[in-house]
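Colleagues,

For the teaching module next term, I've prepared a clean inverse folding example: a structure given as tokens, and then the sequence designed for it. I'd like students to try predicting residues themselves before seeing the answer, so please don't circulate the second half yet.
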């Protein structure tokens, strides 16, 4: 039997060697297929340091871009009450105020990608006003927030005060991107530039400033109000202007001696009054007039969950917004219908930060999807199955032959 086993080992080994050699030959001569791995995901972070709150946004996009610009989506947001300009007398606290949101955002980004993730802090009208009043305090605050951000393993892009024109034009990018007037996903399964969609203008009101941005049909006379962008392979030149001190916070404090918090004020105030569904100007006028004419005791009973400090300022705030739109920006009965009040679109917040990240992706090199070459799944399954069945058949034949042949025969053969 020992001789039989020796005979089996030799011939079984030779058969298996032949079998696997045949399988290798088949895999070599059969045509291979080239495919691409899914693109890596890149991340970016932006601090929007407004006049009354600071928001941290985390964005992501596929590493392979479309005409040099990324398809960016909002991944995470963290809101911190109190703008960094509030800490003019204690700049160190401005830096510490960022840690809560940073600590929450870091786990969102894979550890191995954190050092290559860009992060910027952009301060808006609150810091612009502080710089006008006290340049030293503004510089100290920017130094402290920079010091804090640098303690995290991120690609720090700086902390700076945006111009009003930057804020307005980047907000314009955001709203048009979210409304898919720059690029849209087609039925064919790819991204394309829409041919019949109109580019929209954008207005934003914060606590200390109001911005208006749009793409004019003719030339822009003022170079200071003209900004150029190239997005998804197309060129855009827009007119933008920021009206400092015309934000809701400053306006009410200056003209009415009242202060209420303001953020995305166009939408926030009109949403409270249920005026964000395309109501006519007549309906808007009558609703505001009715609200402002209502006795305080009736208002508090009608809105029992509303913060009384906010409730007390909604009348003046709505009148200011309406006056600015009608007398300042010259909207009328005919053009009022063109205004849409929004705070979000496409599951992302409307503001300058997404526009900044979209523009930044133009400067970040694109990564081509990894290419892999191999056989199709069907060929591999067929080859492995054939190998297994053939090996099993050889083993069965050898065992049967070993059982039926006398030992002496094997000795003679050997």
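(Answer key — instructors only)
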């Amino acid at each position: 039997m020992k001789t039989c086993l020796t005979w089996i080992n030799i011939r079984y080994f030779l058969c298996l060697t032949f079998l696997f050699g045949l399988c290798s030959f088949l895999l070599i001569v059969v045509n291979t297929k080239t495919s691409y791995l899914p693109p890596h995901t890149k991340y970016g972070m932006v601090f929007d340091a407004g006049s009354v709150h600071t928001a941290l946004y985390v964005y992501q996009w596929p590493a392979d871009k479309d005409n040099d610009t990324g398809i960016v989506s909002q991944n995470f947001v963290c809101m911190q009450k109190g703008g960094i300009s509030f800490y003019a007398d204690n700049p160190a606290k401005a830096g510490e105020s960022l840690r809560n949101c940073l600590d929450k955002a870091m786990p969102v980004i894979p550890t191995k990608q954190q050092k290559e993730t860009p992060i910027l802090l952009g301060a808006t009208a609150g810091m612009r006003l502080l710089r006008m009043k006290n340049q030293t305090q503004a510089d100290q605050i920017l130094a402290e927030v920079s010091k804090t951000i640098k303690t995290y393993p991120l690609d720090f892009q700086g902390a700076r005060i945006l111009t009003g024109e930057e804020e307005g034009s980047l907000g314009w990018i955001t709203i048009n991107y979210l409304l898919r007037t720059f690029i849209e996903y087609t039925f064919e399964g790819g991204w394309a530039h829409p041919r019949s969609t109109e580019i929209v203008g954008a207005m934003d009101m914060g606590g200390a400033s109001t911005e208006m941005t749009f793409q004019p049909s003719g030339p822009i006379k003022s170079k200071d109000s003209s900004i150029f962008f190239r997005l998804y392979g197309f060129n855009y030149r827009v007119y933008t202007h920021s009206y400092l001190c015309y934000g809701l916070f400053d306006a009410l404090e200056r003209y009415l001696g009242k202060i209420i918090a303001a953020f995305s004020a166009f939408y926030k105030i009109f949403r409270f009054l249920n005026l964000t569904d395309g109501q006519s100007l007549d309906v808007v006028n009558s609703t505001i007039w009715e609200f402002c004419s209502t006795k305080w005791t009736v208002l508090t009973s009608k809105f029992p969950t509303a913060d009384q400090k906010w409730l007390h300022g909604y009348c003046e705030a709505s009148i200011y917004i309406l006056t600015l739109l009608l007398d300042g920006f010259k909207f009328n009965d005919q053009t009022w219908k063109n205004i849409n009040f929004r705070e979000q679109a496409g599951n992302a917040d409307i503001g300058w930060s997404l526009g900044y990240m979209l523009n930044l992706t133009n400067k970040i090199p694109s990564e081509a999807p990894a290419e892999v070459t191999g056989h199709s799944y069907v060929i591999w399954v067929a080859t492995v199955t054939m190998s297994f069945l053939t090996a099993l058949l050889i083993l069965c034949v050898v065992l049967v032959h070993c059982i039926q042949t006398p030992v002496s025969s094997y000795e003679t053969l050997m």
